[in-house]
From TrEMBL:
<dbReference type="InterPro" id="IPR003723">
    <property type="entry name" value="Precorrin-6x_reduct"/>
</dbReference>
<protein>
    <submittedName>
        <fullName>Cobalt-precorrin-6A reductase</fullName>
        <ecNumber>1.3.1.106</ecNumber>
    </submittedName>
</protein>
<dbReference type="GO" id="GO:0016994">
    <property type="term" value="F:precorrin-6A reductase activity"/>
</dbReference>
<keyword id="KW-0169">Cobalamin biosynthesis</keyword>
<keyword id="KW-0560">Oxidoreductase</keyword>
<dbReference type="Pfam" id="PF02571">
    <property type="entry name" value="CbiJ"/>
</dbReference>
<comment type="pathway">
    <text>Cofactor biosynthesis; adenosylcobalamin biosynthesis.</text>
</comment>
<dbReference type="GO" id="GO:0009236">
    <property type="term" value="P:cobalamin biosynthetic process"/>
</dbReference>
Length: 237
């Protein structure tokens, strides 16, 4: 098999990494837990943009670049596609399918933070599941709102925001209890497509709570796209 550099960031990437032999490299940005039980090499940290990634590909004799980063990691995906162009190394991408609204859902897509805040004005008890981004805006919380923010790690909030540290997979009963305890009247989410975090959407549907969905970014074209780990693994050289 050719030497692979796998850019991780989602659960499916780890599933691919678990199949790789020692000559391959699994790269993580350094956010979240770093696995210690893999046969392949594990690299943590950035590359220095597209040019830095291109230099790494050439210096380490990488034959295939796999982008299995988060659907919202648009900059990393752009750097991967550009590095592949600069070096001639093929780039494959694992693109997780988006969630689709179901009967009873009240989803409202927003393009960016400004549009999100405008759509949030009528509500009082929002639950943010966007990661750490809302932490930059704690001083902007309107007087009529109290925010609940869920991120991978607990960190300080303020008098108008509580931050919960929690990692998926999440379960229906726990999500239902969270919505009830916090009196959540609107959910804010990325459309990550992850089964591990999907139960929050089911509870929002059951409780008729609107969901503000941050629009997915456009991702660059690559040599090949896959929509499941099994599909990609079946085609590895």
């Amino acid at each position: 098999m050719k030497r692979i550099l796998l850019l991780g960031g989602i659960t499916e990437a780890l599933a691919i990494a678990r199949t790789l032999d020692p000559q391959h490299v699994y790269s993580l940005a350094g956010i979240g837990r770093v696995p210690t039980d893999l046969k392949c090499q594990v690299r943590v940290g950035g590359f220095g943009g597209a040019e830095g990634l291109a230099a790494y590909l050439l210096a380490h004799n990488i034959d295939l670049l796999i982008d299995a980063t988060h659907p919202y990691a648009a900059r990393i995906s752009a750097n991967a596609a550009r590095a592949a162009q600069l070096t001639g190394v093929p780039c494959w991408a694992l693109r997780r399918p988006a969630w689709q609204a179901q009967a009873g859902d009240d989803w409202r897509e927003v393009a960016d933070w400004a549009e999100l805040i405008d759509a949030l004005r009528p509500f009082q008890r929002p639950l943010f599941t966007l990661g750490r981004e809302p932490l930059q805006h704690l001083q902007e919380i309107p007087a009529h709102q109290f925010w609940t923010l869920r991120a991978l790690e607990a960190c300080p909030g303020n008098e108008r925001c509580e931050v919960i540290g929690a990692r998926g997979p999440f379960h229906l009963d726990d999500e239902r209890a969270l919505f009830e305890r916090r009196q959540i009247d609107v959910l804010i989410s990325k459309n990550s497509g992850s089964g591990a975090t999907e139960p929050k959407l089911e509870i929002a549907r059951q409780r008729r709570v609107p969901v503000l969905i941050l629009k997915r970014p456009e991702l660059p074209p690559v040599d090949r796209e896959f929509f499941s780990p099994s599909e990609l693994l079946a085609d590895l050289p």
